[in-house]
Please model this.
Amino acid sequence: MPTRRGFVQGYNAQVAVTADHVIAAVNVNQQPNDMPSFVPMMTAATAAAAGLHASTGSPEHQIGIVLADAGYCSNKNLKAPGPDRIIALGKGHEQHAEAIRSPASGPPPAGANAREVMAHRLRTPEGSAAYKRRGATVEPSIGTLKTILSRFSRRGLDAARSELNLAAAAYNIRKIHTATG
Model:
């Protein structure tokens, strides 16, 4: 895997987190780019939400909107079937500045492509506010997960996946215990 300091033998871990900071899905792959992981992770999170909703009937266990950073932005991911989504087109602070500098309202221009539609949506007050929630939702969960599993200790993709699944389960148990304790 390429890093800022060169190449390392490693993996790309993917995490889908709910609005209440529960890890809904994880995966590990050997692709340096996040784009191919978006649809499988969205599918896994959707399946987890559907299972919870079927058990509880709670509307809280349904996906309202998927929020993803710019690493997942591709035309394929913007157009893929599935739940509503906001995928960043660039750095968060640049998007926020653009939403303030050139706010948008109403529907996107007629004939706009998928990226132009997303750019328009990110400049609306609703889209900008929705995307701002991503950092406060996902990043704390990833930070806490890294305290449980700072690095993989076993070799092989299947072993790394099992370690990440175990760490995510420990994280969720701790999260649920703290919330109900």
About this structure: The chain has one domain: 7-155. The chain has a mean pLDDT of 92.
